[in-house]
Amino acid sequence: MIEIDPTRRDLVAAFWENPKGPHSPELQQLVNKLRFEPSMRDKYVVVCTKPYEEWTLAQLPGQRGKPIRMHTDQVFSNLNDAERAIFKLRWEAHTGQTLD
Amino acid sequence: MRTLFGYSDQISARPGDTINFKISSLNGKPYQADIVRLICGDDSPGGPGFKETPVPTAIAGEYAGREQPIYDGSYVTVPHTGAFDNIFSFTLQAFIWPTTPDKGRQALLGIWCADDENGFELFIDDHGSTALCLGDGRGTVDILRAETPMIAREWYFVAAAFDADSGEMRLYQEPLNPGPGIGTEMAVQRSASVAPSQRGATVFLMAAHNVDLDGSVIGGHYNGKIDRPRLANKSLSRAEMEAAKSATIPDALRSHMVGWWNFSRDISGTCATDISPNRLHGEIVNLPTRGMRGHNWTGREHSWRHAPEEYGAIHFHDDDLYDAGWQTDFSLTIPESMASGVYCARLRGAGDEERIPFFVRPPAGKITADAVLLISTATYMAYANMQWSMNTIFAEPKGGGITVLGRDDVFLQENPGYGLSLYDKHSDQTGVCYTSRLRPIFNMRPKTGVWSFNADTHVTDWLEKIGQGFDVVTDEDIHQEGLAAIEPYRVVITGAHPEYWTTPMWDAMVAYQGQGGRLMYLGGNGFYWRIAYHDALPGVLELRRAEGGMRYQTTEPGEYHQSFNGELGGLWRRLGAPPNTLVGAGTVGTGFDSASYYRRTEDSHDPRATFIFEGVGDDEMIGDFGSLLGGAAGVELDGANRKLGTPPHALVVARSEGHSQLYFLCPEETPFHHPVMSGAENPRVRADLLFYETPAGGGVFTTGSISWCASLAHDDYENNVARITGNVLQRFLDPEPL
Ligand SMILES: [Fe+2]
User: Fold this and answer.
1) Does residue A22 have a cis bond before it (omega within 30 degrees)?
2) What's the domain range around A85?
3) If you ran DSSP here, which 8-state letter would residue B622 be given?
4) Nearest-CA distance A27 → chain B (Å)
């Protein structure tokens, strides 16, 4: 299994530049690793809170019928910013390193 | 939060027909209703813009809102009969294959009401083991438990008996394949502290029980299979229970058997057949899955038609749903003046807005245009209330972007009960086989994503824009009427995703082509899965996701045959009738992150193709724009393949290129794994734009891409996708043979 190399800040920078891709093969591998999680529980998503204008960070409960946890302090006006925010959360969880 | 929504009993109607609308206003507030003709449902920035026109009808006005409840979960109910009145001693037994034994209490068989704890029930207890409860309805309940949790997806024989004279209660839980990891037979018995009381108007239920006294609420839903359920009015000995396992009733037991249900009878029907002399046929509610492998399945036959005795199981799910059964709030009789097209009942008020689509055909025996738009209602039903992205770990990697939820997704996640799509799994992780339109379908609506129903309004929008008259016809109409539904039309135009086809629909399209009909297939991943509608139950279709194809859930081996009609289900390609034989191309790949464009090929300069490219330059990129992922070649792609039946004279006039590394060959295109799979590396991952002539002067035009239609409106409809589509439509409308 490929492990995340915390020193590869160059890949982070490339993602920051262009979250939607297309990515280099190395960055794509990193992105796949971050997007793929073994459980849906607590998985980060965004909920569109104003059609085509506003998206709010949220976490899935991983079980039907349970509420989606909304993070109303993290609101985005475009999906690229939401991509960056979720990338950052996952990168930090994987590497233990803070991204600025 | 959604607070106002509904559905209609019919979705396709002609002038004079009546459609009944059933509405729920969750907060009970009133709402305004009227009818609109829908031109375009895509309200996204960069799209054509939302367009609708009010149509005055008699239903316009204010309506008092009321909440209408929805109850999911399948079960069998045997109506009250005198045979239930004098059951003092009893035996309940069945074979079961539980899929969620750890879910909590689940009813198996019984006459039991949870509210007053009255009656008797064989059930799975909170610890996953079989249990028998007796209740007198006055507060005394006695429960005998097997005290051994069952293992999911293993067959068990379970039985419970009570002798009213001796007061002895007995319980058996016996794995059919006992051994390490699974455990052994459990038998427990003791004297009961209570006898069930007799109560009038009781019903016998399987896989659920009554929750309230008047029987209007059902609960305790079980997940898993039940095979050969039995009810006797005697405490049978273990040896008699053994005899009662057989398929037919031994003479010695006949006088004691109240019900001897045989689920392998009439698998396509709507009731659970009792072969005892009482004939206590059960009503099957909310469509549990039938034609399922029984406890005695040997694998020698894979079709329930060939060995029905091995398909005696019904698989129940606590989230099955067929007909919400709501009351009608208003009824629309289609006026003679209502032109064929796409309409919605528009509801406003009660803190919400809702549009319930329906499709109006021309008056019977008439057509009002030479072109007919095929409304892919089977596709809309297949995707109904899809919750895939919230429940599938590969959804985000496949999509190549974070999961974005809308308010309907949030509502469905937090309010389960509105039924699932054919892309979802049940709560017990088995695949969904049936989908109904007799329930609110939150994603068969305008102002949703550019997919399924809403994506097809790009076609209506374009036809209106160019002033092209058209009639509409739905999948269900073609299924019911066959060729007659489309025969009078010179051109049939599909939407973006005509994916699901019954055999009669398929045959109708073959026949249409055989008599000179012209087909414009403006989508991708079309003509892909075989499905079945039910002969007796309206508004429901069945799919078995048999081996092959893109399956977001899978069907178990031995269960590939459709319960509605016995046909082998799955991909038309795997059934020996690839879509290539109908439209020249079949699905080759998918990707949800981006879309691309086409380039003209050598074939496009063939004189036979000249009409297609009138006004389009030799080197133009075709469709490098659009409101679905920014390109006309995207999402799901179809390619030509002579070996799969693409006609030898078909012209591949354009071909897409530049697909991303998140596009992949579909499974049926690659018989083994290798690293050359993605759109960035594998040249087969591309859409083919095709044209060919058919017998009797007909023709086929295929775009091979789901996102094609979402490019029609670009640059105020002045673009090469619109030009090519318009050129083909004009030529296909011309009666001159192709
Ligand atoms: Fe599809």
Assistant:
1) yes
2) 9-95
3) B
4) 12
The pair phi, psi for residue B309, each rounded to 5°, is -65, -15
Using alpha carbons only, give the angle B522, B671, B424 rounded to the nearest 5 degrees. Answer: 60
With an 8 Å Cβ cutoff, are B43 and A66 in contact?
no
Q: Contact B430/B317 with Cβ under 8 angstroms?
A: yes
Helix (H, G, I), strand (E, B), or coil: what is residue B426?
A: coil
Q: Is B17 exposed, middle or buried (0-12, 13-18, 19+ CB in 10 A)?
A: middle
Asked, for residue A75, whether it belongs to a domain, the answer is: yes
Tokens for B183, please give them. Answer: 């455990």
B619-648 pLDDT, tens digit per residue, is 999 999 999 999 999 999 999 999 999 999
Q: For chain A, how many structural domains are there in total?
A: 1
Size of interface A-B (CB pairs under 8 A): 88
ipTM for the assembly: 0.99
H-assigned helices in B466-501:
475-481
Please answer yes or no on whether A21 and B391 come within 8 Å at the CB atom. Answer: no
Taking CA–CA distances from B426, the nearest residue in chain A reads A64
User: Is the pTM value of this prediction over 0.95?
Assistant: yes
Token match 């003709």: residue? B37
Q: How far is CA B232 from the centre of its chain?
A: 37
Gap between the Cα atoms of A51 and B70, Å rounded: 28
Residues B711, B721 contacting (CB under 8 angstroms): yes
- Residue B55: CA count within 13 A, CB half-sphere: 22
pLDDT at B599: 98
Query: Shortest CA distance to A85 belongs to which of A60, A59, A57?
Result: A57
Rounded to the nearest angstrom, the gap between the alpha carbon of residue B49 and the centroid of all alpha carbons in its chain is 30
Direct distance between the N- and C-terminal alpha carbons of chain B, in angstroms, rounded to an integer: 53
In total, chain A counts a number of residues equal to 100
Which pLDDT does position B340 carry in this prediction? 98
**CA-wise closest residue to B486 among B467, B470, B500, B463:** B470
Rounded (5°) CA angle B235-B237-B239: 145
Give the tens place of pLDDT for each residue, B181-197: 999 999 999 999 999 88
Establish if A100 belongs to a structural domain.
Answer: no
Is residue B707 within 8 A of residue B632, CB to CB? The reply is yes
For the stretch B407-446, pLDDT in tens is 999 999 999 999 999 999 999 999 999 999 999 999 999 9
Average pLDDT over residues B335-361: 97
Residues in chain A closer than 8 A to B661 (CB atoms): 22, 25, 28
Best of B319, B403, B445 to substitute, by most chain A Cβ atoms within 10 angstroms, is: B403
Q: What percent of chain B has pLDDT over 90?
A: 96
Show the domains of chain B with their CATH numbers.
4-69+330-360 (2.60.40.10), 75-301+308-316 (2.60.120.200)
Residues of A in contact with B413 (CB under 8 A): 60-61, 64-66, 68
Task: Scan for tokens 């969620």, then name that residue.
Answer: B100
Comparison of pLDDT for B201 and B192, the residue scoring more? B192
The b-or-e profile of B653-681 (16+ CB within 10 A means b, else e) is bbbbbbbbbbbbbbebbbeeeeeebbbbe
Q: Distance of CA B732 to CAs B26, B390, B460, B489, B517, Å?
A: 49, 43, 18, 11, 9
Nearest residue to B427 via CA among B536, B310, B344, B319? B319
pLDDT tens digits for range B296-320:
999 999 999 999 999 999 999 999 9
Nearest residue to B539 (alpha-carbon basis) of B359, B431, B420, B378? B378
CA of B88 to the centre of ligand 1 (A): 54
Are the C-beta atoms of residues B372 and B366 closer than 8 Å to each other? no
Q: What is the DSSP letter of B142?
A: E
Distance CA(B303)–CA(B284), nearest Å, equals: 22
Q: State how beta strands B130-136 and B118-124 pair.
A: antiparallel
